[in-house]
């Protein structure tokens, strides 16, 4: 009995375009491997233009493919929070950047979306937020793939319970941050010669003064700063989501299905208690 | 007062992106410098927003350039020609020239992209994307994120005032700042999420999940000629890059 | 036409609401769903709009019949799921909180109105014609090129209504569409609804109180605790004694005789007609607030920022002098944008005077951080939700006293006392956002009471309140004043001000006017 006013049962959102997801992921991975293993004649003759081009196209293009693959599977409930995540990233990141802090705090929105709406929405939020931020601050642009990775990993961590206990969040932040730092370092080096804020550059300078190559120094700095940054970000997000009313959490199928916040994730709807209305089997 | 528009925003964005690619491909300070003087400078002067754009460029690129100069100027262990020696830190010729190359490159990036971004007509861009049948979800996320940004900033300010009115005093210690950040972001996020849940219903009620191509209320400012020009530019830059890099690889 | 038969509705763990409610709406009808906070009127409105909430864990049993087509719900997972896009083409819904219903991607009112049809792929020429039609009907034509994020409250509400009805639905359901609007804006929105009704649209409006003016033959369905208590014509509803269900009539004074009881004397001295100055006040106490010749201009940046709900640049203050003594309640009145909020925010340091002095509780406001003044002045914002951030009501209310330096145990004790005082004792462990609008307002008031400042500055304290909360507020203000406190409230609510305040000042363009404008009492 279908009527024009109701939806057909079993209606589900479109399938993701797996091909694009695989291609995007592979492109990002290949780019990273190329940059660290081939390690173009980085220092002696200035920066090879191939390296910067590869990092630009590999990471940006990979990010674009990922977004293209993710978009069809997003429900409207994920869709409406992504702009908020992006706006939060930019608003808070801009403040942290202008204060010259050693950490960036530009992933609060990404992690928040990832925790509530899942890894796919998180990855898309990360990538798009750097793309949009790139309009105001071009230095954010090439980090789009790294940001997507953060969103993806944060969502996976949430799915497996990293936000069910407050002490698990910083641990997950440490791991995600370390991976993110590894990925971001070559971009920073090959695109901008590792220029960052005064805070991050001071850390690089320490490693450089010990004789490290620029990529090595930037990677070490990335490991340090990004881990610290993501620990703080994950803790902030955990505290925020614990303070959310159930009503706000309940609107997200991801958070409900995987009990992302443990007992706080909005109780499942209890089965109707009426014994009379039970349909005949 | 923004300048009168000549090209479609999509065309301008693509031109800026291709210019960035060219700078990376050519990778010589002379070329970067030429782009800076011959393209960015006139573009800023003709933008009609000279003050805002130069200020933005200065604010975004300034600290980066300075910190980059300090980093490479003082710490460049690969440098051979030592100009000054402070023990731990050494000023080397190689370090300075590396900082200069990178600095010019960053200057061009910032100049090109910020000039385009700050003269960008976002509604026009969104309308063009809709007319060109880009994914409606992508258009919504872009438009909504840009549209909501000032609202988020404003709301954060209002919440800060409300929290001050009930006793929030931000101290200097990190813990106090961290708590202040939480007392402001928590109601901000809750408010935005409650809005989002209502907006979710609104989007569904307004037929956002429909699968027919979306139309736009704004007229299409794109022209077939510009569409061809965009394809042409992309192909030209691609071909040039291949040739240039090929020539560089060959002896 | 639409017909709703509700057997029961329950949020995931709650008690069944709306048992045995039935409502039918015909073309061109005007139906008011009246009820105090928590009476189930929003739930009813959302059901009409097809939002049965099955995906959010709610259970609905009953049926909705739209144009002869019945959709039945048994509260089971196998229930039909309403197609929101198809439903909204017949039944449009305008929820509370206009901001959440903007797409945020439209730079002009025209685009925002066109958002729905353009999603459905309406051809550009027809799209323009449809937008122009609906804009003309709702008197929005001159605003079509404005930024929807920078409209005044009434303009924004009409834009949202236009965006909802551009599909030409037969029924329009609105949840408290007049909340927070001043008289002029309310009239504009009401006129827009009239225009739609004349075109044959049935209009359903949720209201916390019975409206003072409504179209002839308007019907009322009154709810109390999720049950219908009255169903009939509005004119009959006014005489049906609905006050016992917490449903008053908008514009009535909160409690007869409250104003006279405050000063302990039965004469008219405390009413707004009295000249400014402590003469009208029975027993002058020590001076709590002294503003002398205060001038203030808003900094440029805040003028251009589009604050939700107040589009015109807020005026500053010029030459405002004011004295409020202990035991006194002062009402500040004037049109939107006359500087009422600006004046109030000088009392707790949110604004600092450019020239002149502000002394509160004997302490001049100079450069001290705003936060340190919270123990001297309690401020109730127009938009309460900006200040709620804790995860339980009790923690929320205890924030003020803790920030004021009291030990945790004492802060919690004060908080639960304050919650008891405002009548929210049992809600201490609830999340502030899980309460209704009226209760959230009371939570904010309880935070002020728990902090214990002598001066209260209240911005539109009665906006959106239902009858019980309004009466409660009047009593709390009187109690605070009798205890030696002072109250300054900015308000549009004439009868409330007349009943509760000892004295009224009028603002116009940032200056104090000696007498109310001609249309005043």
TrEMBL record, chain A:
- Membrane-crossing residue ranges in chain numbering: 20-38, 50-74, 80-99, 111-133, 139-158, 165-183, 228-245
Q: What is this protein called?
A: ECF transporter S component
Keyword tags:
Membrane, Transmembrane, Transmembrane helix
At the top level of its lineage, which domain of life is listed? Bacteria
* Matching Gene3D superfamilies: 1.10.1760.20
TrEMBL record, chain B:
| Xref: InterPro entries | ABC/ECF_trnsptr_transmembrane, ECF_transporter_component
Looking at the record's lineage, which domain of life comes first? Bacteria
Q: Say yes or no: keyword Transmembrane helix present.
A: yes
Q: Where is it located?
A: Membrane
Matches recorded under Pfam families:
CbiQ
Q: Which UniProt keywords apply?
A: Cell membrane, Membrane, Transmembrane, Transmembrane helix
TM ranges: 7-25, 31-48, 55-76, 96-117, 138-156, 176-194, 232-250
Topology within the bilayer = Multi-pass membrane protein
Keyword Ion transport assigned: no
This protein's name: Energy-coupling factor transporter transmembrane protein EcfT
- Which organism encodes this protein? Arthrobacter cheniae
TrEMBL record, chain C:
Q: Where is this region: Disordered?
A: 253-288
Residue ranges under compositional bias (Pro residues)?
275-285
A Pfam family the protein falls into: ABC_tran
Q: Which InterPro entries match?
A: AAA+_ATPase (IPR003593), ABC_transporter-like_ATP-bd (IPR003439), ABC_transpr_CbiO/EcfA_su (IPR015856), ECF_ABC_transporter_ATP-bd (IPR050095), P-loop_NTPase (IPR027417)
Q: Name one GO molecular function term.
A: ATP hydrolysis activity
Coiled coil region boundaries: none
Stored PROSITE patterns: ABC_TRANSPORTER_2
Gene Ontology CC terms, in alphabetical order: ATP-binding cassette (ABC) transporter complex
PANTHER family recorded: ENERGY-COUPLING FACTOR TRANSPORTER ATP-BINDING PROTEIN ECFA1, HEAVY METAL TRANSPORTER
Q: Which protein family is it in?
A: Belongs to the ABC transporter superfamily.
Q: What is this protein called?
A: ABC transporter ATP-binding protein
């Amino acid at each position: 009995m279908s009527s024009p006013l109701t939806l057909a049962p079993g209606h589900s959102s479109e399938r993701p375009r797996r091909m694009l997801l695989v291609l995007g992921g592979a492109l990002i991975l290949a780019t990273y491997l190329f940059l660290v293993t081939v390690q173009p004649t980085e220092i002696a003759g200035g920066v090879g233009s191939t390296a910067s081009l590869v990092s630009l196209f590999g990471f940006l293009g990979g990010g674009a493919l990922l977004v293209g693959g993710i978009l069809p599977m997003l429900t409207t409930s994920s869709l409406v929070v992504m702009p908020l995540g992006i706006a939060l990233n930019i608003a808070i990141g801009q403040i942290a950047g202008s204060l010259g802090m050693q950490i960036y705090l530009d992933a609060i929105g990404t992690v928040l979306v990832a925790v509530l709406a899942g890894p796919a929405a998180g990855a898309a939020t990360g990538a798009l937020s750097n793309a949009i931020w790139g309009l105001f601050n071009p230095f954010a642009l090439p980090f789009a793939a790294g940001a997507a990775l953060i969103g993806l990993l944060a969502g996976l961590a949430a799915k497996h319970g990293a936000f069910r206990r407050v002490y698990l969040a910083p641990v997950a932040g440490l791991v995600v941050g370390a991976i993110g730092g590894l990925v971001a370092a070559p971009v920073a080096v090959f695109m901008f010669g590792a220029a960052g804020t005064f805070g991050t550059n001071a850390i690089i300078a320490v490693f450089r003064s010990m004789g490290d190559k620029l990529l090595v120094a930037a990677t070490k700095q990335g490991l340090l700063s990004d881990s610290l940054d993501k620990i703080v970000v994950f803790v902030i997000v955990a505290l925020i989501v614990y303070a959310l009313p159930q009503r706000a959490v309940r609107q997200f199928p991801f958070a409900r299905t995987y009990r992302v916040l443990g007992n706080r994730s909005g109780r499942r709807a209890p089965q109707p208690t009426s014994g009379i209305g039970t349909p005949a089997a | 007062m923004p300048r009168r528009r000549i090209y479609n925003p999509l065309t301008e964005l693509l031109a800026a992106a291709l210019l960035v690619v060219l700078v990376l491909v050519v990778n010589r300070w002379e070329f970067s410098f030429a782009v800076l003087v011959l393209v960015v400078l006139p573009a800023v002067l003709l933008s009609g927003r000279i003050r805002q754009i130069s200020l933005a460029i200065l604010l975004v690129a300034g600290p980066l350039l300075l910190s980059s100069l300090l980093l490479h100027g003082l710490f460049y262990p690969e440098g051979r020609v030592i100009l000054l020696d402070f023990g731990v830190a050494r000023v080397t010729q190689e370090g300075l020239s590396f900082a200069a190359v990178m600095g010019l490159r960053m200057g061009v990036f910032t100049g090109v992209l910020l000039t385009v971004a700050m003269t960008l007509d976002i509604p026009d861009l969104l309308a063009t994307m809709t007319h060109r049948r880009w994914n409606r979800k992508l258009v919504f996320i872009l438009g909504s994120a840009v549209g909501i940004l000032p609202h988020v900033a404003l709301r954060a300010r209002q919440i800060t005032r409300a929290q001050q009115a009930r006793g929030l005093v931000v101290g200097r210690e990190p813990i106090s700042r961290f708590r202040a950040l939480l007392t402001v972001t928590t109601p901000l996020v809750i408010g935005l999420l409650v809005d989002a849940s209502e907006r979710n219903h609104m989007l569904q009620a307004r037929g956002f999940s429909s699968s027919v191509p979306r139309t736009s209320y704004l007229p299409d400012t794109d022209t077939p000629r510009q569409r061809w020009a965009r394809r042409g530019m992309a192909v030209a830059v691609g071909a040039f890059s291949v040739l240039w890099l090929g020539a560089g690889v060959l002896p | 036409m639409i017909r709703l038969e509700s057997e029961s509705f329950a949020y995931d763990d709650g008690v069944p609401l709306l048992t045995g409610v039935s409502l039918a709406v015909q073309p061109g009808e005007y139906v008011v769903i009246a009820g105090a906070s928590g009476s189930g009127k929003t739930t009813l409105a959302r059901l009409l709009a097809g939002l049965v909430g099955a995906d959010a864990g709610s259970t609905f049993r009953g049926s909705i019949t739209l144009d002869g087509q019945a959709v039945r719900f048994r509260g089971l997972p196998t229930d039909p799921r309403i197609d929101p896009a198809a439903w909204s083409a017949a039944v449009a819904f305008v929820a509370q909180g206009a901001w959440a219903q903007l797409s945020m991607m439209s730079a002009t009112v025209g685009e925002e109105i066109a958002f729905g049809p353009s999603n459905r792929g309406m051809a550009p020429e027809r799209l323009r014609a449809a937008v122009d039609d609906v804009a003309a009907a709702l008197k929005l034509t001159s605003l079509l090129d404005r930024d929807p994020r920078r409209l005044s409250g009434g303009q924004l509400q009409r834009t949202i209504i236009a965006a909802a009805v551009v599909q030409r639905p037969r029924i329009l359901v609105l949840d408290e569409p007049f909340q927070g609007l001043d008289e002029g804006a309310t009239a504009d929105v009401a006129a827009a609804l009239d225009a739609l009704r004349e075109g044959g649209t049935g209009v359903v409006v949720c209201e916390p109180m019975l409206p003072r003016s409504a179209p002839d033959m308007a019907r009322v369905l009154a709810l109390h605790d999720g049950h219908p208590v009255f169903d009939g014509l509005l004119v009959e509803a006014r005489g049906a004694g609905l006050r016992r269900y917490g449903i008053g009539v908008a514009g009535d004074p909160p409690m007869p005789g409250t104003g006279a009881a405050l000063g302990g004397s039965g004469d008219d001295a405390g009413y707004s007609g009295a000249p400014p100055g402590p003469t009208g006040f029975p027993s002058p106490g020590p001076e709590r607030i002294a503003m002398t010749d205060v001038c203030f201009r808003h900094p440029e940046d805040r003028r251009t920022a589009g604050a939700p709900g107040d589009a015109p640049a807020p005026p500053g203050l010029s030459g405002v002098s004011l004295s409020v003594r202990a035991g006194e309640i002062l009402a500040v009145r004037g049109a939107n944008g006359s500087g009422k909020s600006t004046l109030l925010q000088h009392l707790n340091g949110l604004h600092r005077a450019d020239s002149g002095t502000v002394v509160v509780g004997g302490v001049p406001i100079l450069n001290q951080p705003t936060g340190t003044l919270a123990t001297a002045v309690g401020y109730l914002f127009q938009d309460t939700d900006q200040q709620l951030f804790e995860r339980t009501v009790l923690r929320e209310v205890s924030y003020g006293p803790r920030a004021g330096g009291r030990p945790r145990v004492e802060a919690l004790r004060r908080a639960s006392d304050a919650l008891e005082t405002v009548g929210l004792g049992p809600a201490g462990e609830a999340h502030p956002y899980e309460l209704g609008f009226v209760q959230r307002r009371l939570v904010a008031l309880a935070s002020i009471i728990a902090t214990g400042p002598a001066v209260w500055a209240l911005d539109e304290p009665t906006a959106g309140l239902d009858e019980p909360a309004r009466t409660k507020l009047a009593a709390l203000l009187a109690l605070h004043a009798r205890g030696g406190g002072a109250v300054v409230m900015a308000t549009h609510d004439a009868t409330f001000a007349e009943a509760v305040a000892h004295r009224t000042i009028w603002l116009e363009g940032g200056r104090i006017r000696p007498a109310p404008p001609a249309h005043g009492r």
